Amino acid sequence: MRPNHCLAFALVIAVAPLSALGAGDVAAGRAAFAKCASCHAVGPSARAGFGPQLSNVIGRKAGSTTDFKYSPAMASAGFIWTDDKLRAFLKAPSDVVPGNKMRFWGIGSDKQIDDILAYLRTFQQ
Known about the structure:
- This protein is an all-alpha fold and about 120 residues long.
- The chain has one domain (about 25-120): Cytochrome c-like domain (Cytochrome Bc1 Complex, Chain D, domain 2, Orthogonal Bundle), CATH 1.10.760.10.
- Helix 2 (about 25-30) crosses helix 6.
- It has helices at about 5-20, 25-30, 70-75, 85-90, 95, 110-120.
- About 45% of the residues lie in helices and about 0% in strands.
């Protein structure tokens, strides 16, 4: 290989993992969401249950659905759910919103979080 071909090849190898970062697998996310589904619903007929429905959650203000009674901490959180905010919340809910009433310790696997986020993105309008 000529020197400038080596550089181009090295750049492709260095950048390729970055493009895959955070992509997630929808099918794996559907399976991983099973641990969330006992409290949360998604889809066209999703309604609040033990937790708020999560359709269109990305881009939504925290604590803002009208069919769920949020904890004072979540109701006053004042932020918009972004991928990064959801990723942090799924990893450690009490670190992101101290005093929230969700009875969930968090997900330790970044891959599983990416998969769940990919699945939730399928319910964005």
